[in-house]
Structure formats: structure tokens, C-alpha cells
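Subject: design request, 503 residues
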């Protein structure tokens, strides 16, 4: 047993997959050395999981094969066309998980992850996002029994025509392997040290003013340190929000409230509402809230920009958007929009627990800095911190998505949906820290509950999968990723102008 567990965490298991059995990009048979590798790790999964041990099979809990119907009343059967008609346009919403059909029309309003994120899959198969977002799938399925109305007819395929069956099969195999290797388990020491480094920076910011006074240089140093605290706390709350630290949801939710509420002054419910939609349908217009800036501020993506031009719509001079992005994008998002909108959100939705956590943040920083700076100085410090944090946040979060494909939802398979909308930034100690490991955006989107310290371990397997299926796996230097944001805005703005004038 110890040898088996050691094999799961041994990085050489990656070599087995890349050399011996995992998603060969060119050759159909095992490469030299595969037989020796399999002899060394007899319990490593084969290309079709034939060597997976019974214990490993129980642990992965991601079998996508149709389940044997339980004894009882004959289930009602449906076709994909019938499911597709219940996409919410007539208020009725159905979706499919592992060939079983669920009516979520009423439940969507009570869905813990938010009504919109589950409704975005109405009329579609939601098997892969269901597996990706939930850490206790067995418990969730018990609550889903009351929503079950039938299953797909036996003659119906397990996949909709718009989805790549072979790619999906291979990805599901990859996910089973990732779970078998233990890559979905967090190193709590990593996150403890990460939290401690944030708290130490927070204390260092206050000590800078207390020891050196409130002149210009100490004030700037304090503001930079506090901005770093806010940015890094933002990446840490992201980990807890995705349930990627603890094995139980309750502990993740508690720490999420503490980090985003008490350390940052923002509501967890607002983050959940926005971010899970983004992950469910990234870069899908009207489903990804990160694209809400289109069309009132920016024309995004080649397809949507041309559409806007043909419709003769001009809310802004989009051909200059790559210039005014520097004015209303990175510097303004947090201090001029999020700062007031988050309070509007929690009060309108009566999220009083979130409001209490937010107030605790402002009380803490008020009592900490007003004695040193006075009220005006404190407000000035807070604005500067939000300004610096906003620049940091926008450049990092947009470098992986804005330059990528943007369109309406085409109901593609999970892997294609995520890969066409995301790209990576090269790994380095600084890039990992600066972006909170969101430079591994591809791996994060494919496995949203995976602890961030394991992204680099699964990356070679994802690259192999992409190579086999001819999918571009983009990874670029940090500064190039920043520049691509501006280049893509300039290109889409020019496409809008050409369509506006000539089509």
C-alpha cells in the first residue's frame, strides 16, 4: 500500500504517461521504455484505465458510463432534441448529467453556486462541469434525486453532435488519472505559508508608517505593501472560493469569507455569482459576466466586433479602445466601479453575513490607520491602494482571456470550451507568485478545484492531450501576454470600424 501511494505522488508517473501510455501525439504504440516504466509502476493507469486498481476506481468517482437503472418504475426516456428545447427560453430548464435528465426549472433559484451558472447549461449536457465544480459529487447527487425526471433513450448517443466524443473520452480518462495521482489533494502547509506571508506584509505596511513617519516615501511604501496584500489575498480567496484547499465545503466557505471579507472588504456571494459563470462558459457572450463591458465600453472579439459594426452601433469610438483602455480599464475598475457596486450587490440581495465581514475590514483598517494619517490621509491611502490593486488585478485576469476567441455559446465540449478561451503564461517563481498561479489558466479552467501548487504537475499531461487532438496550447511570456491585450483590442476595434463603414 505504501508503495502504491508513493507511486501516485511520484513525479515519474508523469513520465509513464508521456512516454508509455498517455495520449501519444504521433506514434500509436508505446514508446521505448514504456514496458520498463509499467513494470516499475504496475499500478499506474493505462491508456484506457485497464490497470486501475479497485481502490483507485472507487476513489476517482468520475465514471461517465451509463449507470444500470435501479429496480422500480420504468424510467421515462427523452431525446437530445427534447432536452435542447428546455433551454430556459420558455422558462422550463432541463439538463443532462451522465445520461440522466434533470428538471432544474425551480431548483436553479436555490442552486448554491448561483442560479445563472446552472442555467447556462440548460438544454445541454452538464456532465463535465458537474464533475469539475463539485468536490463531493456523491452528496450532491442525493439532493439531485428529486430533480430526476428520466434519462436519455438507449438509442441516443452520450454526446451531443456539437461535442468531440474522442476528446471528451480522453479528457475524462485524464481526469481519472489526475485524481488517482492525488493531484486534487491540497498541501495545507502551502496555503498556511501563503496566508502568513500576506499577514506579515499587512503588518509591515503599518510598521512602515509607525516607525518612519507619514512623509511621502513611507506613505508610498505603505501603499505598495498594502496593494500587494490586497492582490495576494485576492488570489488566496480565489483558492478557497474554488473549494481547492479543504476536502469539505464548509471549511473552504469559512476561510473564503475571512479572506475576501475581512482581509479585502468584498462579498463572497458576489464573487461566487460572477466567477462561477465565467468558469462555466468562459468568453461566451451573455453567459460570461467578464464580457459585460461589451458593447457599452469595448468591442470584444473578432466575431462580436464585426456584428456590432454591421448593426451600426457605436456606443464608444471602438477603433480607439486600445488607447482609452489605459484610462477606464486597469486604473478604474476597482476604485470607481467595484468599490461601490459590491455594497449595492449585498444590500440588494440581503447578504447580511457578507456585509458584516466587509464592515469588519473597514473598521479594522480605519482603526489602524486613522490614528497615524487622520481621516483624509486614510481615505487617500485607501484610494491609492485600490488604484494600484486595480491595475494589478486587471492585467493579470485579462491576459489569459481577452486575446482569445470570444463568441456566443456554441455548446462545445468542456475541453474545447475552456481551451479556446484561455492561454497560459510561462512558469517562473515570479510569474507564479505575481499571478497567484493563474499563469496556468488552462489547467485551472480544466480542473477548477485543483490546488494551484499542482498545476505545473498536470500541465505536461494537458499538453499531450492537446497535441493528440490538434488543439493549440498557448503559453507566452508575461509581458507578451500583457501586450496581447492591447493588440487584440486594437484588432477588434479596427474590425468594428471596417464593418461599420463598409458592411
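Subject: RE: design request

Done. Sequence follows.
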Amino acid at each position: 500500500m505504501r508503495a502504491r501511494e508513493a507511486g501516485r505522488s511520484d513525479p515519474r508517473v508523469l513520465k509513464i504517461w508521456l512516454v508509455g501510455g498517455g495520449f501519444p501525439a504521433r506514434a500509436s504504440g508505446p514508446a521505448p521504455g514504456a514496458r520498463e516504466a509499467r513494470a516499475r509502476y504496475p499500478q499506474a493507469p493505462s491508456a484506457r484505465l485497464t490497470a486501475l486498481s479497485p481502490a483507485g476506481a472507487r476513489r476517482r468517482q468520475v465514471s461517465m458510463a451509463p449507470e444500470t437503472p435501479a429496480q422500480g418504475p420504468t424510467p421515462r426516456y427523452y431525446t437530445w432534441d427534447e432536452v435542447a428545447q428546455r433551454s430556459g427560453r420558455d422558462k422550463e430548464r432541463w439538463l443532462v448529467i451522465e445520461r440522466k435528465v434533470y428538471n432544474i426549472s425551480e431548483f436553479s433559484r436555490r442552486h448554491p453556486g448561483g442560479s445563472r451558472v446552472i442555467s447556462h447549461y440548460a438544454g445541454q449536457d452538464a456532465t463535465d462541469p458537474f464533475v469539475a465544480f463539485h468536490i463531493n459529487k456523491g452528496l450532491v447527487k442525493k439532493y439531485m434525486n428529486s430533480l430526476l425526471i428520466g434519462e436519455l433513450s438507449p438509442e441516443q448517443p452520450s454526446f451531443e453532435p456539437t461535442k468531440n466524443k474522442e476528446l471528451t473520452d480522453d479528457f475524462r480518462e485524464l481526469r481519472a488519472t489526475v485524481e488517482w495521482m492525488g493531484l486534487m489533494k491540497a498541501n495545507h502547509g502551502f496555503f498556511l505559508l501563503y496566508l502568513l506571508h500576506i499577514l506579515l506584509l499587512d503588518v509591515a505596511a503599518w510598521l512602515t508608517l509607525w516607525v518612519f513617519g507619514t512623509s511621502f516615501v513611507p506613505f508610498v511604501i505603505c501603499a505598495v505593501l498594502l496593494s500587494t496584500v490586497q492582490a495576494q489575498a485576492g488570489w488566496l480567496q480565489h483558492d478557497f472560493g474554488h473549494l481547492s484547499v479543504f476536502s469539505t465545503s464548509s471549511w473552504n466557505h469559512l476561510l473564503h469569507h475571512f479572506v475576501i471579507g475581512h482581509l479585502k472588504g468584498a462579498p463572497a456571494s458576489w464573487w461566487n455569482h460572477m466567477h462561477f459563470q465565467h468558469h462555466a462558459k468562459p468568453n461566451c457572450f451573455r453567459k460570461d459576466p467578464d464580457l459585460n463591458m461589451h458593447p457599452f465600453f469595448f468591442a470584444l472579439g473578432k466575431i462580436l466586433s464585426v456584428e456590432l459594426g454591421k448593426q451600426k452601433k457605436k456606443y464608444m469610438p471602438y477603433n480607439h479602445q486600445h488607447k482609452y483602455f489605459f484610462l477606464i480599464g486597469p486604473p478604474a475598475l476597482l476604485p470607481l466601479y467595484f468599490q461601490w457596486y459590491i455594497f449595492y450587490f449585498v444590500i440588494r440581495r440581503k447578504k447580511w453575513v457578507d456585509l458584516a465581514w466587509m464592515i469588519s475590514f473597514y473598521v479594522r483598517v480605519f482603526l489602524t490607520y486613522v490614528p497615524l494619517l487622520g481621516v483624509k490621509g486614510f481615505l487617500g491611502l485607501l484610494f491609492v491602494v485600490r488604484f494600484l490593486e486595480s491595475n494589478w488585478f486587471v492585467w493579470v485576469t485579462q491576459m489569459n482571456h481577452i486575446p482569445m476567441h470570444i463568441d456566443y455559446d456554441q455548446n462545445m465540449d468542456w475541453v474545447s470550451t475552456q481551451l479556446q478561451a484561455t492561454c497560459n503564461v510561462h512558469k517562473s517563481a515570479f510569474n507564479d507568485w505575481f499571478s497567484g498561479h493563474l499563469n496556468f489558466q488552462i489547467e485551472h479552467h480544466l480542473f477548477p478545484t485543483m490546488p494551484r501548487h499542482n498545476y505545473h504537475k498536470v500541465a505536461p499531461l494537458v499538453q499531450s492531450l492537446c497535441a493528440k487532438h490538434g488543439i493549440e496550447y498557448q503559453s507566452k511570456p508575461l509581458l507578451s501576454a500583457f501586450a496581447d491585450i492591447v493588440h487584440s483590442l486594437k484588432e477588434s476595434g479596427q474590425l468594428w470600424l471596417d464593418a461599420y463603414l463598409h458592411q
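The radius of gyration is 24 Å.
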